[in-house]
UniProtKB/TrEMBL annotation:
GO terms for biological process: fatty acid beta-oxidation. It comes from Denitrobaculum tricleocarpae. It catalyses: a 4-saturated-(3S)-3-hydroxyacyl-CoA = a (3E)-enoyl-CoA + H2O; a (3S)-3-hydroxyacyl-CoA = a (2E)-enoyl-CoA + H2O. Could possibly oxidize fatty acids using specific components. GO terms for molecular function: 3-hydroxyacyl-CoA dehydratase activity. Belongs to the enoyl-CoA hydratase/isomerase family. Keywords: Fatty acid metabolism, Lipid metabolism, Lyase. This is enoyl-CoA hydratase. Pfam families: ECH_1 (PF00378). Gene3D superfamilies: 2-enoyl-CoA Hydratase, Chain A, domain 1, Lyase 2-enoyl-coa Hydratase, Chain A, domain 2.
Length: 258
């Protein structure tokens, strides 16, 4: 597939996807979503890739769904075709880790997409918001749900009811992002973090991701049981034997990713 709205590269064992629609602040049009899904499919199938970074430009991660593309749709257009079908959520079922590196605006669907990633590293100029209320609608791809889980009811409610944006410092304080870095360091920092993850055992990384995500879907007791079963399963991998042997022998592990 030829990409017109994203740039895709492989750097070592890390897959880098850059949203690239500068004329529209990286607004998420249908073509961009198709391309993003295709790129994620490719990285999932590529055994050499063990972590993915999703980023935008210095000005905008993404300023939301493409308003011009959806403005004339009526109820049956969106309800009938279940607009924002599962492709919009493709990031959430990526089994390899996906880091969002966010500079500039992450608004509406852009904020939702960043929250679908496994964690967010933000540049100092990042601005997060769910401004849909200001254009006569509400978030449609998890904003009311994920933002509330990240930052709590009070801030999420205020942001969804007023469209107020959160800057990077507030986003870090509120637990929306894992770290804030200078704009010029964002990509390098995200790539280094991704390389660190890609240098670990893929089965353990995938299990850890699955276990943390389960915390959002289940009770504490069930989540802990799920974690325990995955922990037990990790003992069936070659990498658990290698990792523990390497520790005992005071040498670096030679991961097989199996
Ligand atoms: N859709 C389409 N075009 C956009 C969008 C957008 N979301 N955002 C910006 N653009 C375009 C502008 O129209 C403008 O185009 P042109 O040059 O042709 O006039 C260009 O990008 C540059 O934008 P601005 O001139 O407005 O730049 P500013 O620096 O003045 O402002 C802002 C930047 C604050 C980001 C401003 O553009 C803005 O408010 N954008 C809209 C933000 C918004 O309301 N987003 C929510 C959209 S609705 C949504 O996301 C629903 C989610 C559904 C689920 C999606 C699943 C992933």
């Amino acid at each position: 597939m030829a990409y017109e709205n994203i740039l895709v590269e492989t750097r070592g064992n890390v897959g880098l996807i850059t949203l690239n629609r500068p004329k529209a602040m990286n607004a998420l049009c249908a073509a961009l979503i198709d391309e993003l899904s295709d790129a994620l499919d490719g990285f999932e199938k590529d055994a050499g890739i063990r972590c993915i970074v999703l980023t935008g430009s210095e000005k905008a991660f993404a300023a939301g769904a493409d308003i011009k593309e959806m403005k004339s749709k009526d109820f049956m257009d969106v309800y009938g075709e279940d607009f924002i079908t599962h492709d919009w959520e493709r990031v959430t079922w990526t089994r390899k880790p996906v880091i969002a590196a966010v500079a500039g605006y992450a608004l509406g669907g852009g904020c939702e997409m960043a929250m679908m990633c496994d964690f967010i590293i933000a540049a100092e100029n990042a601005k997060f918001g769910q401004p849909e209320i200001t254009i006569g609608t509400i978030p449609g791809s998890g904003g009311t749900q994920r933002l509330t889980r990240f930052v709590g009811k009070s801030k999420a409610m205020e942001m969804c009811l007023t469209g107020r944006m959160m800057d990077a410092a507030e986003a870090e304080r509120s637990g929306l992002v894992s770290r804030v870095v200078p704009v010029e360091d964002l990509l390098e920092d995200a790539m280094k973090t991704a390389e660190k993850i890609a240098g670990l055992s893929l089965p353990s990384v995938m299990m850890a991701k699955e276990a943390v995500n389960r915390a959002y879907e289940t009770t504490l007791a069930e989540g802990v049981k799920f974690e325990r079963r995955l922990f037990h399963s990790s003992f069936a991998t070659q990498d658990q034997k290698e990792g523990m042997a390497a520790f005992a022998e005071k040498r670096p592990a030679n991961w097989k990713h199996r």
